[in-house]
Amino acid sequence: MNNVSHDQALDAPPCATIPLKKARWFEDEVHVHDARLKSYLRGSFPSVDVEDVVQESYLRTWIASATKPVRSAKAFLFTVAKRLALNSLRHRKKSPMVAVPDLAALDVVDESKDTVEAVAVSEEIALLAEALNSLPPRCREIIILRAYQGLSQREVATLLSISETTVGTQVYQGMLRLEAFFTKRGLIES
User: Fold this and answer.
1) How many Å from the N-terminal Cα to the C-terminal Cα in the chain?
2) Are 170 and 142 in contact (CB under 8 A)?
3) What's 104's DSSP letter?
4) Tens-place pLDDT, residues 82-110
């Protein structure tokens, strides 16, 4: 954004601000593996939504390359896709979904929970989301991968092409920021 003002950059569509060199790198080094990646995922993980995994893999590869050069785009892309597919399978195993033929027949009121408790849980979730959104993007991504997706420090480092030390530092700083967030709102004592 050398000659573009902040307001102009916000008005421009996202693709207008992508440097041509970066777009070519993505097309030549990442997107060129589209067919092989989809074939690999369909063969290795037939029950996974291949299109979703591929799109998320592209996004994560793009984000990773924005902060640090990716040595082997193909290896990085396939590693990210494999981990996303495995995470999808793990998530599905933990919380299987049951297809419902008639949604109108469902009882949408959860009578098993106390209404006050349900509201409190909903507010806690909203507060946690606000706390996570207050973190810098990179820190938030690492916290989510470590704390909420359960990846090891090594797995996060490999996935994002960063050192394990960086992952540990980001987790530590993120936890301090989250602690400060909750302390400021009187939810925990300092």
Assistant:
1) 41
2) yes
3) G
4) 999 999 888 877 766 555 566 666 666 56
- What's phi and psi for 2, nearest 5 deg? -65, -50
Per-residue burial over 85-94, b if 16 or more Cβ lie within 10 Å, else e, is: bebbeeeeee
Residue type, 44: S
54 touches 37 (CB < 8 A):
yes
Nearest-angstrom CA–CA distance, 49 and 140: 25
Alpha-carbon distance of 53 to 70, in angstroms, equals: 19
pTM: 0.45
pLDDT tens profile 114-170: 777 777 777 888 888 888 889 998 999 998 888 878 888 898 899 888 998 998 899
Cα dihedral: 147, 152, 156, 159 (round 10): -130
Q: Which residue has the tokens 């933990």?
A: 94
- Count of C-beta atoms within a 10 Å radius of residue 38: 15
CA–CA distance, 73 with 79 (Å, rounded to integer) = 10
Q: How many residues does the chain have?
A: 190
pLDDT at 183: 86
